[in-house]
Amino acid sequence: MRRIIKVLSFILFSLTIIGLPNAQNITDGQIDFDSTPTSVQSSITKAMNRSSQKADGVWLSNPSFKSHFSEKAVSMSPTNNKMVWSWSLTSINNTDAVLSTPVLYDTSTCEYVDYARGNLTERYLFHGRSIEQQFIIATMPKEKYITIEGNILSEGAFQKKDDHWLWANDQGSIRLGELYVYDATGTEIEASFEVSDRKTRIHIEEEALASATFPVTIDPEIGPDDFRISFMGPNGNVNLDASDPAVAYNSSDDQYLVVWEADDNVGGLVNGELEVFSQLVEADGTIDSNHIRISFMGGTGNANFDGGHVDVAHNAAANNYLVVWRGDNTTNGEFEIWGQFVDNLGQPVGNNFQISQSFPNKIATDPKVTSNSTNDEYLIVWSGVEFQNKLEIFGQIIDATADVVVDDFKISNQEELNNEFDAHRPAVVHNSPDNEYLVVWDGDAKTGGLVNNELEIYGQLLDNLGNEIGSDFRISDMANDGQDQFDALAAQVDYNTQDNEYLVVWLGNDNNGAGPEIYGQLLDADGNQIGENDFQISDQDFTPSSLENFPSVSYSAIENKYVVIWDANDRVGGLNEIEVYGQIVDASGLDQLSNGFRISEIGPPGNANFTVKGVDIAYNETTGQFLSVWGGEDTGANGELEIFGQLLDLQSPLKQFLISDMGPTGNADFDAFDPSVAYNAIDNEYFVVWQGEENTGNLIFDEFEIY
Fold first, then answer.
1. DSSP designation for 449
2. Strand, coil or helix: 320
3. How far apart are CA 547 and CA 498, in angstroms?
4. I want to staple 437 with a disulfide (CB 3.0 to 4.6 A). Which of 155, 310, 462, 683 is the partner?
5. Which of 594, 539, 599, 538 is nearest to 128 (CA)?
6. Do 435 and 375 touch, CB atoms closer than 8 A?
7. pLDDT tens profile 425-446
8. Does pLDDT of 576 surpass 90?
9. What rounded mean pLDDT belongs to the chain?
10. Are the CB atoms for 257 and 346 separated by under 8 Å?
């Protein structure tokens, strides 16, 4: 069984992951298009971290935080927050630590700071949104054990939580999370960790070191971290899992509602009894209350009845949420679509209610929901059996009190009356200016040379009453028609309010040598394809285990861009582990980064045994941020799935900033122009000069000087 130790983890108000346009290598904000980095991720890291070695140590500036490495301590503070948190090494194996000069190293793959301390190296690796602290023990210490003690100084109030510690004020916090101790073979080593408001102590016994292969690495991380949302059962219990989350944003209260399917062992629930649960998450990632059970399929204590395949939407007009799921409630295996309203405080309103009305012994599955604030309604869509196991897409419109506005109606038409051709996995979005819906799905057909089991993406426009606008239309074309080994599946869609268009994304194989990847297609408001046909969004290694987990997409009206997320095994740089990744796509369908950016940090680095199950993303129109959520094995126990989240911000670290300030702001009579710049390698600084006119110190209009 794995032994988990708590670590240093720096939590910020604004968690930032940035994509960069066409950058090959970036140092101190300068793009070098002639060099070739080891990976795109290293380019992102260099872009986000501006570091410099100076007489008083090493300085690091990140869009989310600032850090200073001096001889005495490592200090950190959130950007625009005066709360400072610092840690200093006080002793190694009960011997006082001596001062050591921090040295900055910049390699082709990473930047880091080293403190040389004899047999121990204290190292800080710079990541895109965090600092990874390492203590590297080169050989067996003469004492045969390891004890590392440190002091903490912080203005933040100390709080001991169930599974972590915080130093916090009203603007930000420092968090101690998880860490791993491992030897040169990757074998984890048992250790202990003691924490108070002012001290830390790590200890590894002689027994644990006796069989270790040196060097031994003690590996915490300091920086914005994934935060845990669900807590199903005791930590370490791999039988109780949470997975397949969905999330919706509430603009009225600036909060998110995250929902998922899980089994638990409280309130009479038993192992294997899957139900739907929810958790309110504040805009800054704060979780102030416990999760709530939403579904009650077959009562309580009976594992034969389940609720799952969950989705959620928020209705701004009613300021409530609708949670929908697939569940069997009275007859084992007879699934229908169910719903539950949740108020803005996260509390269920009324009881579970049945939405779909399938024939006896038929199945309805994979529901999706979108809200229509114009009509104060919701449209729910799902895949259901029409006859003889033939699956088509159906829908129902209900109002904000669960009254049916338009009863079950059929949306897709995958080869009418032919049960060899089906429609699966729908998604839906509302177009508010036109008060219309777009429904998309994957299915097979025999038109245009297509064959049975050759899945492609299709769409159908609906008016606000559910009436079809035109006919079903095909969206994707993976490889050549007639080849059933090349598919498109699991479509997701969002609407662009600025350009009145849609982005549809899916997992597909286009027979281009890339294997399964994430693809996209832009559509205008009438469903016509615009821009590049079936453009590739991801560039990664999708292992068979990850093919069950599909993409999600959300649109930012502030940036007029989309964020697409997915999970995959990206083997670039020897990572070889399943993580959550993202891509920024502009309104023309152009990727902002050549192969995406990493969002999650599941399990120990390089450990392929920790996986992801289900991803979703929602846009916060108040802050301009996104909340991405996923099911992941990141609690310390391999096989224990919980729900995690990460806040994302599209603001680039390569921001334009004002250097000159000629005359009063807004006065067009005083100008600055014709600048020149030189770089000082010794102090890692730039000197900028320009020609300008000013109205201070007796200067007058049209009197040009050099500044």
1. G
2. strand
3. 33
4. 462
5. 599
6. yes
7. 999 999 999 999 999 999 999 8
8. no
9. 82
10. yes
Task: Decide: residue 623, CB within 10 A, 0-12 exposed, 13-18 middle, 19+ buried.
Answer: middle
pLDDT attached to residue 145: 96
The answer to whether residue 224 scores a pLDDT higher than 60 is no
27 pLDDT more than 50: no
Range from 40-49, 504-513, 605-614 that averages highest in pLDDT: 504-513
Q: What are phi and psi of 209, to 5 degrees?
A: -85, -20
- Residue 558 neighbours by CB distance under 10 Å: 15
Instruction: Please report which helix (H) or strand (E) contains residue 40, including its range.
Output: helix 40-48
- Please tell me the predicted confidence (pLDDT) of residue 625: 84
Cα 123 to the chain's mean position, in Å? 27
> Does the pLDDT value for residue 356 go beyond 90?
yes
* Residue-wise burial string across 201-228, b where 16 or more C-beta atoms lie within 10 A, e elsewhere: ebebeeebbeebeebbbbbbbbbbbbbb
Quick check: 114 and 107 in contact, CB under 8 A? no
Q: Which residues, including other chains, have CB under 8 Å from residue 94's CB and lie 6 or more apart? A: 147
622-680 pLDDT, tens digit each: 878 888 999 888 655 667 788 988 888 775 322 233 467 677 755 666 677 656 656 46
Cβ pair 380, 354 in contact under 8 A: no
Residue with tokens 């009190």: 401
Do the beta carbons of residue 564 and residue 553 sit within 8 Å? yes
Binned at pLDDT 50, 70 and 90, residue 543 comes out as: low
Question: CA-CA distances (angstroms) from residue 163 to 166, 175, 293?
Answer: 10, 10, 22
- Which of the two residues, 27 and 544, has the higher pLDDT score? 544
Could you give the CA distance from residue 509 to residue 487 in angstroms, rounded to a whole number?
6
Mention every residue, 6+ apart, whose C-beta is less than 8 A from residue 83.
77, 154, 155, 156, 169, 171, 172
- In the three-class reduction of DSSP (H, G, I as helix; E, B as strand; rest coil), residue 546 is classed as helix
pLDDT at 147: 96
E-strand ranges in 138-274 read: 146-154, 157-160, 165-168, 173-182, 192-195, 199-204, 216-219, 227-228, 242-250, 255-262
- Contact criterion met (CB below 8 Å) for 414 and 471: no
| CA distances, 287 to each of 258, 577, 624, 645, 646 (Å) | 11, 28, 20, 11, 13
From 289, 295, 335, select the one nearest 312 (Cα to Cα).
295
Distance CA 79, CA 66 (A): 6
The pLDDT of residue 36 is: 29
How far apart, in Å, do the first and last CA atoms of the chain sit?
65
State how far the alpha carbon of 643 is from the alpha carbons of 415, 610, 629, 704, in Å. 39, 13, 7, 61
What residues are paired with 259 via a beta bridge?
A: 246, 278
> 430-433 long-range contacts, Cβ below 8 Å, gap at least 24?
430/370, 430/371, 430/372, 430/379, 430/495, 431/495, 431/500, 431/502, 431/525, 432/372, 432/373, 432/374, 432/495, 432/497, 433/497, 433/500
Planar angle of CA 180, 181, 187, nearest 5 degrees: 105
Answer whether 143's CB lies under 8 Å from 93's CB.
Answer: yes
Whole-number CA gyration radius for the chain: 28
DSSP code of 359?
P
**Strand locations in 24-145 (E):** 26-27, 30-31, 50-54, 57-61, 65-69, 74-78, 85-92, 95-96, 103-106, 111-117, 120-126, 131-137
How far apart are alpha carbons 328 and 351 in whole angstroms? Answer: 16
Give SS3 for 545.
helix
Cα-Cα-Cα-Cα dihedral of 609, 612, 613, 616, to 10°? 180
Residue 109: is its pLDDT beyond 80? no
Q: Which of 343-347, 416-420, 479-483, 582-586 has the highest mean pLDDT?
A: 343-347
